[in-house]
Amino acid sequence: MTAGKTKRDYSLVGESTRIAIETGLASAEWYHTDVPRKTMKELMQRSDGPAIRDTIIWIAAILGSAAGGIWFWGTWWCVPFFLVYGVLYGSSSDSRWHECGHGTAFRTRWMNDVVYQIASFMLMRNPVTWRWSHARHHTDTIIVGRDAEIAVMRPPDLLRAALAFTGVLDFRYSLPTLVRNAFGNLSPDEKSFVPEMEQHKAVIAARWHVAIYVATIALALYLWSFLSLVLIGLPRLYGSWHMVLTGLLQHIGLADNVTDHRLNTRTVYMNPISRFIYWNMNYHVEHHMFPMVPYHALPKLHELIKHDLPEPNPSMWHAYREVWPVLIKQLQYEDYFLKRELPPTARPYREEFHALTVPAAAE
Amino acid sequence: MAVWVEACGVDDVEEEDVIRFDHGGRTFAIYRSPNDEFFATDGYCTHEKAHLADGLVMGDIIECPKHNGRFNYKTGAAKGAPVCVNLKTYPVKVEAGKVMIQIG
Predict the structure, then answer these.
(1) Residues of B with CB below 8 A from A40's CB?
(2) Which of A107, A303, B38, B78 could form a disulfide with B83 if both were Cys (CB 3.0 to 4.6 A apart)?
(3) Where does the pLDDT of residue A359 fall: very low under 50, low under 70, confident under 90, or very high at 90 and above?
(4) DSSP class of A349
(5) Which residue does chain A place closest to B47, by CA atoms?
(6) Where in chain B are the domains?
(7) pTM for the complete prediction?
(8) What CATH architecture is B4-102?
(9) How far is A210 from chain B (nearest CA, A)?
(10) Mean per-residue pLDDT for B86-94?
């Protein structure tokens, strides 16, 4: 943990990328807690039941809150309905996107695919590019120059992190990206993780998304009412705060350039409502170590391997309080990070790569 | 000339499961289907270097433990993103309780 005088290069086609590949940090073999094969097989088993139940509740709550919002449209009574609708649309879609993208939520493949496509649309995410970026995130979790999904880079931009709760920055990035993709343009970063044979699919998907947004805007103009936009598109702004609240905690303030998820990922105990919205992704170390374990089996996996993990944060509040001073320190010393203590029952951290010099961005 | 090597005993693999077999600096995956048939493929996923033997067998499908890429282990066919390249398969026979694979 030395004073960092150089800026990290987060480009996926830059100097950090080259060094990560050359040193073997990219696509490395990661630490795993030992779990007997028989137990792991049981944990990995797929089932449609829990996800069908949760999806029925989810869709019913979306339709119910939307109906309330529409019914009371034009009065203040619509506000609480849209607050609920916004979180269901703009936040819980993220965990559905995530689990169905992994193909673990349902046993039946087409069910995963349908929910994945719907959730991708709700999030303004290109379903093709984001599937590949997330695969990269799992291969190279918080590896600078490789991971396309590092939410808070170093030194941390605290204003940007705060604005993330409003959804403005994500909206400003996501919509133009979809439009750019719809015109057939993929950025160099996108091309670095989407195989050539899949790139045309990203363009087609973006065109569908953009077409629906154009139709929604046309409907709003025809009816001369914001209602259709409040229902489609804008929830990405006013309802994404819960996704950010829970999602930021996954890796913020922890180590980068390591090959041990216990060093760069955080598990946080959460209330049942947040866990429903987040589909148990608060067990994030467990998820990264064993991404094939479905969301509904993560609490059981947690119980099995917690002896080998740092103690989870007991609440989101605790986790943010813990990470805040780390972020403040990173403003001056960007190499600083939070190294959480392992219990005596755990095997030592794997941190050999972390000794490597962090490459600097081009001045 | 065909080269057959002994990979494991038939009882070493549970039904609808997979085990790893290393030979000559290479790694293979040996499968036992729900119908009690044996199959063999390359041991690593074609997407990233992950051992398929750590994955989940569901019917005719092996799912990679790293990114959930799926292959039909009987044919080697990749079944969609993030796997795009088919898996190499190897002939298998069972003799005297041993699973043999042809690697040459």
Answers:
(1) 54
(2) B78
(3) very low
(4) P
(5) A135
(6) 4-102
(7) 0.91
(8) 3-layer Sandwich (2.102)
(9) 23
(10) 97
